[in-house]
Amino acid sequence: xxxxxxxxxxxxxxxxxxxxxxxxxxxxxxxxxxxxxxxxxxxxxxxxxxxxxxxxxxxxxxxxxxxxxxxxxxxxxxxxxxxxxxxxxxxxxxxxxxxxxxxxxxxxxxxxxxxxxxxxxxxxxxxxxxxxxxxxxxxxxxxxxxxxxxxxxxxxxxxxxxxxxxxxxxxxxxxxxxxxxxxxxx
Length: 186
Prior knowledge:
Layout: H1 23-59, H2 63-67, H3 77-100, H4 103-106, H5 110-131, H6 134-158, H7 160-165, H8 167-184
Helix pairs in contact: 1-3, 1-5, 3-5, 5-6, 6-8
């Protein structure tokens, strides 16, 4: 048995004992993860936003909506387009929040609902404000509202913040539905 005089207790601050220096790889891993997260966030927001911009650009502003006699509460066309872009941005952000937590695997119906609301949102403005087919536009608005309600419920189960981000989109779609209904009877 060894004598107690040869035993020495190591002190943490003792400069003679080498300290592990593997903090560098952990920090680099965290930075790499953060960069991937920011890239995926940018992609998740940019795709719906750029599709909405393309829809606005290619559908073009028609004189039909501008020349219609409208009540005071009808939005100008620039406000419709700006709010549609904001809605796309919010939906992209909420979808990213769900994706980041693995929600599209946990709730497989969330992705088709998101894609449905994206497609319906892209065709709604050209149908309602561009071509002037209010009946079809009303059906599209109702479908979009249903898809948004489904997204809100599915997203809330995965991430409550993502579910809450859908609420302004629901309000905007309900408002556009009332405008479309008014255009139908104008």
